[in-house]
């Protein structure tokens, strides 16, 4: 399997995890996504997909760890950096009013 196929599979896995959380009206945050991915990994019979889920979990955890290290709040200050964009930093469209 080439790199683009692996990335496509990983994108599908993240999408499945997020959609399953949304169907249950659950909160979409990093912890919820990782927990859902772990549940998916535990019940996945396909070895290739199981390995891909494990890689996604590792990648999400690595990003969380590196993000926390860079943006750690000062002692006694609340952590307000717990929301991260899932699909990039910019909006794909621009809303403008036409009168």
Explained architecture:
By secondary structure, the chain is mainly alpha-helical. The chain has a domain at 3-66: Single alpha-helices involved in coiled-coils or other helix-helix interfaces (Up-down Bundle). The chain has helices at residues 3-23, 30-43, 47-70. Helix 1 (3-23) packs across helix 2, helix 1 (3-23) crosses helix 3 (47-70) and helix 2 (30-43) packs antiparallel against helix 3. The N and C termini lie far apart (52 Å). The mean pLDDT is 80.
Describe the structure using short key phrases.
99 residues; mainly alpha; single chain; Single alpha-helices involved in coiled-coils or other helix-helix interfaces
The total of helices stands at 3
Radius of gyration: 17 Å
Strand proportion, as a percent range, falls in under 5%
Structural class from helices and strands? mainly alpha
Please provide the ordered H/E string of secondary-structure elements: HHH
CATH class of the domain at 3-66: Mainly Alpha
**Which regions are unreliable across 5 or more consecutive residues at pLDDT < 50?**
none
In the CATH scheme, what's the topology name of the domain at 3-66?
Answer: Single alpha-helices involved in coiled-coils or other helix-helix interfaces
Main beta sheet: strand number and arrangement?
none
How far apart are the termini?
A: 52 Å
Mean pLDDT: 80
Q: How many distinct beta strands?
A: 0
> Which geometry do the CA atoms define?
globular
**CATH architecture label name of the domain at 3-66:** Up-down Bundle
Q: Give helix % range.
A: 55-70%
């Amino acid at each position: 399997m080439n790199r683009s196929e692996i990335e496509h599979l990983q994108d599908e896995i993240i999408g499945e995890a997020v959609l399953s959380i949304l169907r249950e009206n659950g909160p979409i945050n990093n912890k919820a996504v990782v927990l859902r991915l772990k549940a998916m990994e535990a019940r996945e019979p396909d070895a290739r997909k199981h390995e891909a889920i494990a890689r996604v979990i590792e990648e999400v955890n690595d990003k969380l760890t590196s993000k926390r290290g860079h943006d750690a709040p000062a002692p006694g200050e609340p952590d307000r950096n717990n929301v991260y964009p899932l699909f990039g930093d910019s909006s794909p469209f621009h809303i403008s009013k036409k009168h």
